[in-house]
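Researcher: Here's the sequence for the chain we discussed earlier.
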Amino acid sequence: MPGEEQNIFYYLVNILDILLVWYVIYRLIMVIKGTKAVQLLKGITVIIVVRIVSDLIGLDTLQWLMDQAITWGFLAIIIIFQPELRRALEQLGRGKLFQRSTSPEDENLTDVVDAISGAVEYMAKRRIGALITLERETGMGDYIETGIALHAKATKELLINIFIPNTPLHDGAVIVQKNTIAAAGCYLPLSESPFISKELGTRHRAALGISEQTDAITIVVSEETGAISLTKNGELLRDVDKKEFGGILLQELQLKSKTTSSTRWQWRGKNHG
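Model: Thanks. This is the structure I predict for it:
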């Protein structure tokens, strides 16, 4: 009997150990979800699969290359993803890493699109320059930190007020997360593509730059012409009709496939301008 009790206790401890390990892994996945580190995990998975296949088939050279990638990959991860690791450690220090995650809420895309469409139409008519980025799967925490945190509900009036000329926040980008304006006055990376038309200014280059590094959709209102443009996946859709803008934006935000480009998204004009 004492031996049986000891075996039961041993099994319970092992089950508890496994459950705790899985929970830690789950919480770590929640921390990196929506960040660039997700792409890293996909890359690691590919390397592991190739390593196993090369071992089974007997591809010695490929197997050696994969071994080197795995051996030096850990150091590369620390260097490349330092911001994500820092954020995870900060959450751990604040006791947030193991807090219960919030349940997903209805994003109510229609209300967000209506608010943005109303603001963009107003600003386009009056030639008020604007730069609005909508976060999707790839997290934009690094770019949000460059601006002024707002965490306010996205409304037409607030968006218009932010971009009114000569106000403190009008010169940067607004980043929208779900139905919330996360921050304003944010700095976005400029595209270095040589194919961008010379007539396009800094706002368009910033919109293309962020679309090359994330899957975000960015809206640009030209201060010179009042023209509306959209960027996604390194592509630029220029001179969007005001009446079609809301429908196009809603369609793109509802797309399940983030990698397939819509036929509406084409480079227009000479020199990809």
